[in-house]
Each structure stands twice: as C-alpha cells, then as structure tokens.
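Most newcomers find our protein records easier to grasp once they have seen one. A learned vocabulary of local backbone shapes supplies the integers on the structure line. An example says more than a description, so a record of this kind follows:
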Amino acid sequence: MSARDVVILGAGPTGCALGAYLARGGARVTLVERDAEAQPAVGESLIPETALVLEELGFDVSGFAVKRGAVFCEAGAAARFDFSEAESPRYTHAWQVPREVFDARWRELARREGCELVHAEARDVDLGARTLRTSAGDLAAGLLVDAGGRSMWLSRKLGLREGDARLRNLAVGTRMRGVRAVAPDEPGDVTLCSVPQGWIWIVPFGGGVASVGAVMRPHAAPAGDAATRLAAMIASSPDARARLDGAERIAPLRGLQDFTASSTRFYGDGFALCGDAACFIDPIFSSGLLLGLRGARGLAAALLSGDLAGWEAEYRAASAVFRRAIDAWYDGDFMTLALLPRARQKGYVRRSVVSLLAGDIYDPSRRSARDMADRMGDLAAAVRERVARA
C-alpha cells in the first residue's frame, strides 16, 4: 500500500472538483472510479451559481448549450424565468451538459491538477486502518471521501443513510432527437412540465437533441415498464406533447427509485461524504451539481481550516433551502406563483424566485432566494385567496 493524503471514491464532477482543490493546496490525491470512460447520467442541467467553481478551477465549458432561463408549464399554460431577472445576479447563464462529456472534462482537469486516477471498484473499507479495499488493491490515506454519487456507498456501509418518507419517487430518463422549442422557450432553456402524477423534464443540448425524463409519485405513477411509464407521462401533458410529438428515443432508458436521501453525518474519524453521496434531493430545481461542487469547494477549505462542522452546517443549510422549495413544488405553491399573470407578479417575488432558480443561496448578505423558499407557501395561499374572492 502507498500512503496518500486523500482517497476520493468517485471521479464525477464533485470528486474531481474536490481533488483539484486539494491538489492545488499540496495534497496527494487519488481518485477511484469504477468506469474507465465517463457515462451518460441524469443531472445534465446546471444553474448559474455553479459558475463560481467552474471559473476558479478553469473548467472548459466550450461547446455546451448556454442556458439562460427555465420554462415551467402546466395544462397548456407556461411561464419563463430569465436568470438575468435575479436580484443583483452575479451570473446570468449556465449550461446544459451531456454528462459523458462534462464528466470526462472533469477527469482531465483533475489529472492536470496532479490527481492520480485509479480505475477500480470499491469493495470494502477499514476506517481504523484508513484503507479503501478495491478490485485493484488496498489504498491507504489519511482521509477517505465518498463522492461516488447516489448509491451513497460509504453512507450505507456506515449505517448513516436515511431515506425521505415524503419523496419516495420514481424517475425514468432517456435522450430524444427531434425535440422542438415552443413559445415561450428560448434556445437552451430547460422546460419542466407539471402533471398530476409528477413532472417531466426537457434539457436541450442543441440540434433538436435533448435529455427527456419524468419523475413520478409512487401512488400515481402509470403502470407498466419504464418505456410505457415515460410515454404515459408525456401523453398526459399537452406541454410535453407540443415539444416531443414525433421525437425519437436515441438512448437507453435509465431509471431511479426512492432516490431522495441524506446522511445523518457528513464526516467522522477518517472519512467524509460529499455531493450526492452525502445527500440527494429531488432534481426539480437542478440543485444537485451546485450542492456537490460548492460542497467540494467548502470541504477542501474546511480540511485546511479544520472547521468541518461549519462546512457540514453550510452544506445542510443550502440543501434545506432547495428542500423547502421542493416541498412548495409538490404542494402546488411554486406553480401557483409561477403561472400568475406577469402583470400581477410583484417585482420582488419574481426577482426572489429567479434568484432561487439561479442557486444564489450561499452569500449570507443575499437573502432573497432563501426568504422565498421560506415564504412560498404563504405567498401562494394569498394568491389563491385573492383568486377565490375575485
């Protein structure tokens, strides 16, 4: 066994960003990744605040479709939110990223920063000996970090994973060709279609090709296999049909089930959890990569300062903001506000909603997005009351 400072399980964006930050600080880092080649994955839509990490690490975003806004649809009604409408926006766009390309670039960046990449499968862990046991042999280090994604491998090993009783949802996704934009869509916009059974995503990569999928509530999910369920979800939405009728599937179907979960601890003696391996929440607001990349940035700084408790608190607080907004989505409150006619939308409400969609939740002095997550239910109730009185 060779000694290392840090062994990171997972060479996705979170693991590679963490490795790059640590290597810049002088650490000896080994990334352990099962797949020799980066694979397609759900989670292709970035939000603007991810740009801070991309800029700091010099990540190459060339060739990715620019995403300047999001469109929310329900029963033929639609509303578009442009990221430039946020309160004092630092970044006014993001990108749509096919993950096999995005993740491969992260691996290249980590290597350039001096990280070692080992292709192997994790088999066991001995925290007392600070050793990850893999198919390529034992890897010892001062710290073992699981950044390996939604499987939450180390969290499960340590008995830390907790599911979410409310969000035990199902998801199925694929890629399609022949996808159309429909007003008010603009090039690069993500489109999210609300239906009684859940919601549908359309993430455009350009040239009529898009990631397409659906998240379904278990009690309302259509019957059948994955293909049948996705087709039924699309058929139930006039907004999805307008964009997808005639489109053809060009990739295998990928499924997820009961995927919302968190860990009771994000770190301990000899280990840490980061990104989806620490917690994963419903993807309606494309928060996963922001939480993972900002979590990696914060963990690298915390390992230098020793303030891991502060890092975990910040990570949980950021996740909680999106979780409150997710609850508002499933309660119908988000769409109540989103589909309110533009002339009736108060300016501060719209700015705050866009700030939330952009992920502007980390600067303590910028409270509008966090306040909106807290107040969305009350604001939506007030709107419904006014409508009822009219």
